[in-house]
Amino acid sequence: MKKIFLVSLLFPIFLFAQVEGEIKVPYVDFPMKDGKGVYSTRGKCNMCHSFGYVINQGKQSRAFWLEKTVKMIKTFNAPIAEADIEVVVNYLYENYGSNDEHNNSVEVP
Q1: This prediction's pTM
Q2: pLDDT of res. 100
Q3: d(CA 48, CA 43)
Q4: Where are the domains of the chain?
């Protein structure tokens, strides 16, 4: 019990540690494929996260991209107007989609 108490007292010391010199955070560029809706999608998605998040999802169905887009709006308050949902979903599917022939037509909620 004494050890835990002692460690909890000493831990905040690390929060005030000083680093001499300059710290450089590497920049990683995640370029977006050109296509219809690229500018609208870039403006809306990159406001909150890098496009690497999208690329890391892998090739997915249109239903998947719609679900993710709606989730970003409802859960994270993404600034995507209802009229723009279809533009974003179409761009994501056409450029990062699985090209699944079934489940290709999905209605925007």
Answers
A1: 0.69
A2: 67
A3: 10
A4: 29-96
